[in-house]
Specification:
It contains 24 helices and 14 strands. By secondary structure, the chain is of the alpha/beta class. α14 (337-353) crosses α20. The structure holds adenosine-5'-triphosphate.
């Protein structure tokens, strides 16, 4: 991958040119400003908040070793940040006041980066998911803007008056890989900046560009937060009047994602639109829970040579929270995934009903293909509408769906509803895998082996945040075993056999007399109410994932066919066009249904009720057009990536006509240079569609 990324030249564009020494401080090389006095308060802090990731013993030891008496003491309490005017009183109040953010003690990553950022250093910060990285970069960045004498916030507090800022007053820019994350960061930033006069704005895809621009023009902007596509769009368009000639700080949240080949070209272009770093000094901050080795080199080329590397995940540590139990469920077939998911929810609820003190079941189920997300959400929604469910103790569970195929309004609504929900399941693609801070998620369930280790870690990180407990589950077909080992490496997953329906033979007929039979029948009824076309899309979507994940293509096809006929109860398999079969290397495989889709059309196409199957809506174009996206097409947002091939072939690989896409299988999308990486991604790949 590095080779590819280097070709894009991001490092050049990103590099600040001020002369620097050549020392980067790494991992446990902790802030030089740490003084021994901090350790007593440290111990007190930890005893108060034992489960929250504060400074670890190893860190503390390292701190003692690294201590230089000339450096200021490390601060661990937000209230102490007022000393030496380090952080503006208004910001501190916003953070600590009970009626505001109500936070008291800084997390490890916050303590370890604050001084360095205020000092103006470039930083790479790696800390586990849910440990407060957002505030770690927001607080000092907002403070730095306030410290800038050319920033005018003199009209603060006067109701009608806005501070004197225009669209060209942007001092800091935060790039986020997803829209939802950008919005979430903005909400947090506005809380921190409240009453300071600093103006925070967003620029994210899927929203009305004109309305967003008008807001920036009317209200001005000091801190802009956005997604790569929209940022590029507005910064490159002279008619928007939005530019950043005084920009001093650039922040890449989920930095490894933004430096990956999918986003790197956009990030590079955005850099090119910012002031020349030889003329306007620029600080660059990178934050993520994961920094794979490949990206590390890229980071080094990107940051100033003496950047500070704060890594709160020890080298010898698995970068998932030890306190998150992670369970591996082998499923008999792909059709067992949904029954197993329902059983998991029911088991939890039954324990609650029996008086165990458990939090309400609030889960995110991650799928590797968008269409599978939809089928699953549709089936569970149908179940939730049944009278049996509505009379059960699970009746308050919300069944929500989020993926890039939904309009931005629906995505936002789903995210908001899930945030507010006390209990429920969010059926999600990877659009929520990074950074999203949904409160009180008790379970993260990953259906199928994810594309890479980082994805596993970030998805898992949606639970057990800010010191809370949580569980991780991975549902996996036995034929994914090899890829599981290669891709995920060392992780603390334990095989669990508690879910009976995961191993049931679903080709049998079940009576409602047994718990498993009841679950299977509920799922069957739910799936029976799903659109046949959606099921075809799900098959097609999973075709790419399964052939990439399974030990062999033959096993993948068998498993998919079984899921389609037995699980989805569809009588005829989707036909694959000769061209598609050739491209996927499926030509000589038994079980592949070759054709042009006429069988599905003859049989009734997109009938509701799920018993007749479906194929393509319009004429004889094969699987889907851009809008349908039956698995291979791409579409939706600007800035999306991935998919299969480019070039709009109508046998199922068409692009959705969106702008700014790149990558994909045919264009080096198999990351051949990441030898340990999975070569394939789902064809209706969602995590590239932000
Ligand atoms: N010092 C603190 N004390 C208690 N809670 C905190 C503190 N700082 C942040 N939080 C809360 O912790 C939660 C997680 O924070 P945040 O979303 O910034 O995590 P993150 O490290 O960025 O996670 P991810 O890697 O998933 O993006 C948020 O709800 C946030 O409000």
């Amino acid at each position: 991958m590095l080779g590819t990324v280097r070709r894009f030249g991001v490092s050049q564009a990103l590099r600040a040119t001020a002369p620097r020494s050549v020392s980067a401080r790494f991992a446990t090389q902790l802030p030089k400003w740490q003084a021994p006095s901090a350790l007593s308060s440290l111990a007190a802090t930890r005893s108060l908040h034992s489960s929250f990731p504060r400074l670890s013993a190893a860190t503390a030891e390292a701190i003692v070793e690294e201590t230089e008496s000339t450096k200021p003491a490390m601060i661990t309490e937000f209230s102490d940040l007022a000393s030496d005017n380090l952080i503006h009183n208004t910001i501190i109040k916003n953070i600590i006041q009970p009626d505001r953010m109500n936070l008291k003690t800084m997390t490890e990553v916050q303590s370890l980066t604050l001084h360095e950022i205020v000092k103006g250093d470039d930083i790479l910060a790696q800390a586990k998911t849910g440990t407060g990285k957002t505030l770690a970069f927001l607080v000092p960045t907002l403070q730095n803007i306030l410290n800038d004498p050319t920033v005018d916030v003199s009209k603060v507090g006067r109701r009608s008056a806005r501070p004197r800022t225009g669209p060209s007053e942007i001092r800091a820019l935060i790039i986020s890989p997803t829209r939802e994350l950008a919005e979430q960061i903005a909400v947090e930033a506005r809380k921190v900046a409240f009453g300071t006069g600093l103006v925070v704005q967003t620029a994210v895809g899927g929203t009305q560009k004109r309305a967003g621009l008008a807001k920036i023009q009317q209200e001005g902007c000091h801190l802009l937060i956005g997604t790569p596509g929209r940022l590029k769009d507005i910064l490159s368009d002279p008619w928007t009047g939005v530019s950043a000639p005084k920009l001093n700080t650039l922040i890449l949240d989920e930095a490894d994602r933004l430096l990956d080949q999918g986003f790197a070209p956009d990030v590079e272009e955005i850099q090119g639109m910012l002031p020349d770093p030889t003329k306007v000094d620029r600080q660059t901050l990178m934050f993520s829970a994961t920094v794979p080795r490949e990206v590390m080199q890229m980071v080094r080329q990107t940051l100033k040579p003496n950047f500070t590397h704060v890594n709160t995940v020890r080298e010898d540590e698995v970068p998932t929270h030890v306190r998150v139990p992670q369970k591996l469920i082998y499923t008999r077939g792909l059709e067992n995934n949904l029954p197993a998911l329902l059983e998991l929810a029911q088991n939890w609820q039954a324990r609650r009903d029996n008086g165990e003190e458990l939090r309400p079941f609030k889960a995110i189920a991650y799928f590797n293909s968008t269409a599978e997300t939809k089928v699953s959400a549709d089936a569970f929604n149908a179940i939730a509408r049944s009278s049996e469910f509505r009379q059960s103790s699970m009746r308050n569970m919300r069944m929500l769906e989020i993926n890039s195929r939904l309009s931005q309004a629906l995505r936002t609504r789903s995210a908001d509803n899930f945030r507010k929900a006390r209990e429920g399941i969010l059926f999600s693609s990877d659009v929520t895998a990074r950074g999203m801070d949904f409160p009180d998620v008790t379970h993260v369930i990953q259906v199928g082996v994810p594309r890479d280790r980082e994805t596993y870690i970030h998805r898992l990180g949606r639970t057990a945040r800010a010191g809370k407990e949580g569980e991780g589950w991975l549902f996996m077909h036995p034929a994914e075993q090899d890829v599981y080992r290669k891709r995920l490496g060392r992780l603390p997953l334990k095989v669990d056999t508690v879910l009976e329906s995961a191993n049931a033979d679903l080709s049998q007929t079940f009576s409602n007399d047994t718990p498993v039979g009841k679950i299977v029948n509920q799922i069957n009824e739910g799936l029976a109410q799903c659109d046949g076309a959606t099921k075809v899309k799900s098959y097609m979507g999973q075709l790419g994932t399964a052939t990439g994940n399974f030990n062999s293509k033959r096993e993948a096809i068998q498993a998919l066919n079984q899921m389609f006929t037995v699980g989805y109860n569809m009588p005829t398999l989707p036909e694959l066009s000769p061209r598609l079969m050739q491209q996927m290397g499926l030509n000589r495989l038994d079980g592949v249904s070759a054709g042009d889709g006429s069988r599905q059309r003859r049989d009734g196409g997109f009938s509701r009720g799920g018993d007749r199957g479906g194929f393509s809506r319009g004429g004889d174009r094969g699987f889907s057009r851009g809008g349908d996206r039956g698995g291979f097409s791409r579409g939706g947002d600007r800035g999306e990536r991935g998919g299969f091939s480019r070039g709009g072939d109508r046998d199922g690989f068409s692009r959705g006509g969106d702008r700014g896409e790149r990558g994909g299988f045919s264009r080096g999308g198999d990351r051949g240079d990441r030898s340990s990486r999975p070569p394939r991604r789902s064809f209706d790949d969602d995590s590239f569609r932000f």
